[in-house]
Amino acid sequence: xxxxxxxxxxxxxxxxxxxxxxxxxxxxxxxxxxxxxxxxxxxxxxxxxxxxxxxxxxxxxxxxxxxxxxxxxxxxxx
Length: 78
What we know:
Blueprint: E1 4-8, E2 17-21, E3 27-33, E4 36-45, E5 50-58, E6 67-73
Antiparallel strand pairs: 1-2, 3-4, 4-5, 5-6
């Protein structure tokens, strides 16, 4: 059974695209423009039993910056 679930609710597609991830694999998303990309990563921390996340800017085709925007525990305020 999947632990993580991702979807793309708004795009040029007529249907909503989905993806699943397990505790062992996590799940990662990437949305890009010609100016750079935004990437999200969710994973399960076995040591603490928490689901963690990171949101960051990254390069796309040589454009953009590398910068962490947010990170923390899913379901908790930062």
